[in-house]
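Researcher: We are triaging several targets before committing to wet-lab work. For this one, the compound of interest is 2-acetamido-2-deoxy-beta-D-glucopyranose. I'm pasting the protein sequence and the ligand SMILES. What I need is the predicted three-dimensional arrangement of the protein with the ligand bound, expressed as structure tokens, so it can go straight into our comparison scripts without reformatting.
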Amino acid sequence: MGYVKLVFLMLFSLLCQLAFCSSLPHLCPKDQALALLQFKQMFPIDAYSKLLSWNKSIDCCSWDGVHCNEATGQVIGLNLTRCGLQGKFHSNSSLFKLSNLKRLDLSNNDFSESLISPKFGELSSLTHLDMSYSSFTGLIPAEISRLSKLHVLRIQSYSDGLRFGPHNFELLLKNLTRLRELDLSSVNISSTIPLNFSSYLTNLGLSYTQIYGRLPEGVFHLSNLESLDLSDNPQLTVRFPTTKWNSSASLMELVLYRVNATGRIPESFGHLTSLRTLGIASCNLSGSIPKPLWNLTNIEELELGDNHLEGPISELFRFGKLRSLLLENNNFDGQLEFLSFNRIWTQLEVLDFSSNSLTGPIPSNVSGMQNAHSLYLSSNQLNGTVPSWIFSLPSLIFLDLSDNHFSGNIQEFKSKTLDTVSLKQNQLQGPIPKSLLNLHHLYYLVLSHNNLSGEIASTICNLTKLLVLDLGSNNLEGTIPLCLGEMSELWVLDLSNNSLSGTINTTFSIGNELMVIKFDMNKLEGKVPQSLINCTVLKVLDLGNNELNDTFPKWLRALPNLMILRLRSNKFFGPINDSSAYKFARIRMIDLSSNGFSGDLPMSLFENFEAMKINGEKSGTREYIADMNGRYYTNSFIVTKGLDLELPRVLTTNIIIDLSKNRFEGHIPSIIGDLIGLRTLNLSHNRLEGHIPASLHQLSVLESLDLSSNKISGEIPQQLVSLTSLEVLNLSHNHLVGCIPKGKQFDTFENSSYQGNDGLCGLPLSKDCGGDEGVPQATTPFGLDQEEEEVDSSIISWQSVLMGYGCGLVIGLSIIYIMFSTQYPAWFSRMDVKLEHIITTRMKRHKKRH
Ligand SMILES: *[C@@H]1O[C@H](CO)[C@@H](O)[C@H](O)[C@H]1NC(C)=O
Ligand SMILES: *[C@@H]1O[C@H](CO)[C@@H](O)[C@H](O)[C@H]1NC(C)=O
Ligand SMILES: *[C@@H]1O[C@H](CO)[C@@H](O)[C@H](O)[C@H]1NC(C)=O
Ligand SMILES: *[C@@H]1O[C@H](CO)[C@@H](O)[C@H](O)[C@H]1NC(C)=O
Ligand SMILES: *[C@@H]1O[C@H](CO)[C@@H](O)[C@H](O)[C@H]1NC(C)=O
Ligand SMILES: *[C@@H]1O[C@H](CO)[C@@H](O)[C@H](O)[C@H]1NC(C)=O
Ligand SMILES: *[C@@H]1O[C@H](CO)[C@@H](O)[C@H](O)[C@H]1NC(C)=O
Ligand SMILES: *[C@@H]1O[C@H](CO)[C@@H](O)[C@H](O)[C@H]1NC(C)=O
Ligand SMILES: *[C@@H]1O[C@H](CO)[C@@H](O)[C@H](O)[C@H]1NC(C)=O
Ligand SMILES: *[C@@H]1O[C@H](CO)[C@@H](O)[C@H](O)[C@H]1NC(C)=O
Ligand SMILES: *[C@@H]1O[C@H](CO)[C@@H](O)[C@H](O)[C@H]1NC(C)=O
Ligand SMILES: *[C@@H]1O[C@H](CO)[C@@H](O)[C@H](O)[C@H]1NC(C)=O
């Protein structure tokens, strides 16, 4: 029996060896298991961590992320990517005891700005080292260059904290001769690129590394190169090879945003037959896309935005695999008919042709863009009706057709995924389509500057996620839907420049998020709705150019954020001055002109204009007011500065008080001199009397001062000569006397600034002052009654405008004109888009790699 038992046992152990034991690897050495456990202890471990499986009662070779040599059991690989590790990575880390490590991946953790220890240089067997996006900071130690077996080195980061010491980058490239992949994006390298590289390089990522000088052409001839990204190095001068590139067979991804690559795209690009991604944006490139490039039909991403490229785009249909096509801000021309070549671009996700010179209609029979999520065709000269397929794309999220010549009615919306629709600045007509209500994800609805007609149906309030509703500058009629005040997410409500009528019965609910309400240029009547008091974050309120008949809504003082208040050209009446303190502490622009306000100028109001008491240019608080992503909505206003000018966007430093054309009386309070941020002060066409306060000389950035058509007497204070920013001065039609100040800006003003004051003398008037003696006394020049005087002086103010107020004005106007005509705002809005772009491309890359 004992014998049988023995045989059985032997058999069993044999079976065991066959079945299980042979599959057991060599056990992980105790000291290495211990080192790993010590490492684990350095970080708090949550319930989802990979490191939970690191349990000393289990062999360490089977721990998650740990790889052992099958023959020896030594730990040779450690992959801790996305382990949620959080805490410092010190030089005394037990990890450095794992001297056999070949692959170490620490990426996507948070080592809380730890320095990279020189001890990494002791892990001399490493072939792969990935420390990317893990919040390391500081100098990258020169010791990294000892890792001469490295094939892959990745140290890119999200922040600016990592850098190389002088020559260390050169040393790295010189010593790491086997590198295949090197990604140092966002590391501050701050040197030129040395001539010698590992010839094995397949991936080189040096975006945003402050490298400068000339890129050695050798980079393009690395015969294994698959991916090259040198973006965001504006000091890096890139010249492309004009002959065949040695990397042509392998190169799949070439990304060079914002490098110095002036000139044309050379024909040699035609050899890059493996190219999938070509991105050369914001590089000053000019000329047309060379013919051979059209043969690269495998391209999936083509991004050439923000250059000066030109020529037709009609060959684009050849690129049947495109996912992303960004050609914005160039001079490409031609028509879009190629889009109708059947079933092109089934993969296409993003198409951006905005700000080019495309003409003609969008073809109506396009199919195959079922994956498109972004379609930008704004700022071209496209015309015709917008075809219905555009509104039916099943995946579309962003649609921007603004600033073209589209006409006809807006078709029914069928894509339910849209979150942004901008059709502004076209010639679209007809009603706002009802099908908009199916767009439950809509954030931005911008239909302004068209010829849309009909009423605003109250069902628009069903778009509960709307942030921006801009229907301004159309022909909409009827009343303002009551429910608009209940839209809890809305930031911008712009219904200006339509034919809306009736009283504003909208009740704005508590907790609303409205920052901009513009109802100006309609036919609204009645009173300012009291419920505006519920708009506690309101920055801009424009009710100008209506028929509102109310007293000054002084209760608006309770709105702590109000920056712009415009009530101009209505039927407001009554005094404004009030003994209780006003609190308009943030107001920058107040326009009450052309109403029936009366009584003394509101001292207590001026006292509380705290924001006007700051010179923003000096204190650096210069930003646009309530600009919701400049691409889709900007706050534009007409302001009067001698001439009526439209400001496409308003800076916080553009500080304006316009109380003109009312019935204010009494003196000009000298406290106005404390509002040192003022750019424009217009008190003209009132019944003001007394003297011009000398304190006005403190308004050092004042550009326009209009006190004309009042009953102001006394002399012009000589101190006003210190107003060196003054471009427009109008003191005409008052009772001023004495010498006109001389010097500086005052030498640029003409007669028109002073006429209608019988007692003034000196240049530019013909009346000589004849020395200091005998300042003439004030007399009422004409026996005109108020009515006649008003008519008269408004004619004169236009005449004087036409005559010009001197070179200051001309220069000022031309600057503003240039701002308009050079698409200054478009340039600014690009910044957002670019940022968006950088973030999305980075995220994309990031995703691709991990
Ligand atoms: C380790 O594993 C054993 C058995 O699987 C288990 O009982 C123990 O709780 C684990 N220890 C830790 C620290 O998770
Ligand atoms: C490692 O060094 C840090 C700081 O240099 C220290 O706080 C920590 O206690 C050390 N850890 C060990 C295990 O020695
Ligand atoms: C670590 O694991 C991830 C997948 O989890 C993989 O993509 C990555 O290449 C690995 N790192 C190394 C250095 O092998
Ligand atoms: C360069 O690599 C060699 C091994 O190939 C090594 O001995 C040397 O120390 C490294 N040089 C530096 C400066 O790291
Ligand atoms: C990069 O480093 C250089 C010199 O080391 C320094 O002058 C520069 O300011 C740094 N740039 C950034 C963005 O940190
Ligand atoms: C860009 O390259 C040109 C030469 O093509 C050079 O003259 C210019 O200085 C470079 N600009 C910068 C910012 O490096
Ligand atoms: C592009 O393709 C055409 C034929 O489709 C061919 O004739 C031409 O040589 C090609 N050009 C290049 C540069 O390969
Ligand atoms: C569109 O513009 C072209 C010129 O670019 C013009 O010939 C054509 O008549 C226009 N079509 C419409 C519908 O306005
Ligand atoms: C709008 O919403 C209300 C309730 O939220 C609903 O009763 C009504 O049917 C909706 N109207 C449309 C046209 O979707
Ligand atoms: C506003 O309300 C008043 C009184 O409640 C009413 O007479 C008027 O018709 C309403 N106006 C509008 C436009 O709804
Ligand atoms: C403020 O909103 C609430 C509803 O949210 C409303 O009942 C109240 O009347 C509003 N306030 C004013 C002054 O209209
Ligand atoms: C304003 O309304 C009142 C009645 O509420 C009316 O008497 C007055 O004439 C109106 N003012 C103007 C300028 O229309």
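Researcher: Any quick observations?
Model: The two ends are 62 Å apart (CA to CA).
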